Amino acid sequence: MKYSITLILSLLCSMAIAQSVTFKALRFDEDYSKSDQMEGNNWYHRFKFNPITSDGSAYLSFGGEVRSQYFYYKDQNWGESPPDHDGFILSRALFHADLHFGKYIRTFVQVQSSLSNGELAPPSPVNQNPLDLHQAFIDVQFPLEKNTALTLRLGRQELLYGSQRLVSVRDAPNNRQAFDGAKVIYNSKLVSFDGFYTNYVAARPGIFDDKPTADTRFWGGYAVFKDVPLVKHLDLYYLGLKKRLAMFDDGKGREVRHSIGARLWNTGEKWQYDLEGVYQFGKFGSGSISAYTISSNIAYTFKSLTLRPQAGVKAEVISGDKHYDDGRLSTFNPLFPRGGYFGLAALIGPSNLFDMHPYVQISLSQHLTLTEDYDVFWRLNQNDGLYAISGKLLYSGKNGFSRYIGGQLGTTLEYNPTNFLYMRAELTWFDSGKYLKEAGPGKDILMTGLTITYKF
Which of 229, 243, 323, 392 has CA 20 to 30 A from 138's CA? Predict the structure, then answer.
């Protein structure tokens, strides 16, 4: 916590230097080769664009992020965990160096430090990973016609696709996730495509000891079609997963799972929509896999009204297993989803669910946004349990008959005064339903979260 505050204070002066800088979710996507992005020849300008050749074709760029979060849970895990009267603090620091050797070769290296302070239980690798090499890859770009690029990427890298329902950097938790492998990237004016083959990088408790594991292999292809008539944007993809040992309510065994999906989306000024469907098939142990999900997020922004309110509703149908020991697994596997799938409290994962999620967002000022949402959850199938975002089984379907899990009321206040600084306060109340009272203590959960993030 101390190093986070010190670094934030030491870098605050850069806000007034380069307000035009826009940070990306994937920091390696940032391009500072055009030096006119920032005014003046100041230290921060040279920090982001430091030429090492006279013509500036080869240059070095630095950047990073410092984030601190405070969490307090009342009746964490619905009363399963011991009471914590003080809460706990999570801190994360990321720093990267990006070296470009002309137009066609670049290397990107990023280190990550994630620390937990005050948790009663030993922190998981998702919350604590003291210091490790998070990304290290080389890009080789092949010259093609104008507005078209083909790149080969080799090494440790983050993956992020679409709505992040299935493939995410896992930014909400303390430790972002990465993969070791190869990726081919094609970009043109109307189509972009990624093909990749990787092993998951497992976080370990030591320093510089994270390593890829052949126990979890991940591959696939993801295409985005732009300016499609009627639907605007269309994503089509295939994702493959192999795990040496996977565990579900129906048992455990070797899993080879294939996911094929389509997504229609648009981010218009008034109407916004995100519609997605995924079907999964493959082998689990000696049996087969047949699972699916259908999700929607439709919203409308009232631009002409004061506070520019946005009203929307999300809904998801996510399959669960229908019968125990029938040789057919129907539990949907969300693969590598975003950590705060149903809010920062991250209580429930997207398997064996039906949920309805209305929400309202208002702009209190140019930089201050208030969001109110209420999410209601049911188990889709009685013969399957309740899962965490990690895929861990929280409660078996054998422990209760009710489908109703509960309702989650959330209030979020976000303050984003500059591109550098982001602050968030969140209050979540989970009203436990009949199934949670059948399967466990079933106490209501109250979560308070405070986040401050500084990017540079």
Answer: 243
Give the CATH number, domain containing residue 291.
2.40.160.100
- Is residue 425 within 8 Å of 412, Cβ to Cβ? yes
Our count of domains for the chain comes to 1
The whole-number pLDDT of residue 342 equals 87
Q: Where are the alpha helices (DSSP H) in 42-149?
A: 43-48
CA 54, CA 47: separation in Å to the nearest integer? Answer: 17
Domain of 124, in residue numbers: 2-455
Residue 37 pLDDT greater than 70, yes or no: no
Amino acid at 19: Q
Strand partners, 440: none
Report residue 2: phi and psi, to 5°.
-65, -45
Looking at residue 344, what is its pLDDT? 83
Tokens at 395, concatenated = 């409660």
Give the CA-trace dihedral at 50, 56, 59, 64, to 10 degrees. Answer: 50
Q: Are 386 and 352 in contact (CB under 8 A)?
A: yes
pLDDT value at residue 160? 97
Look at residue 230 in the predicted model and tell me its pLDDT.
84
Do residues 103 and 57 touch, judged by C-beta distance below 8 A?
A: yes
Among candidate residues 335, 301, 368, the one with its CA nearest the CA of residue 163: 335
State the alpha helices, DSSP H only, in 149-196: none
Task: Please state, in angstroms and rounded to a whole number, the distance separating the CA atoms of residues 151 and 185.
Answer: 5
- pLDDT on residue 11: 52
- 163 and 263 Cβ atoms separated by less than 8 Å: yes
Q: Which pairing describes strands 353-363 and 310-318: parallel, antiparallel, or unpaired?
A: antiparallel
For residue 35, the model assigns a pLDDT of: 59
Q: What are the phi and psi torsion angles at 321 (to 5°)?
A: -75, 140
Cα angle value 254/276/389 (rounded, 5°): 45
pLDDT digits (tens, 9 = 90+) for 333-376: 999 999 888 888 889 999 999 999 999 999 999 999 999 999 99
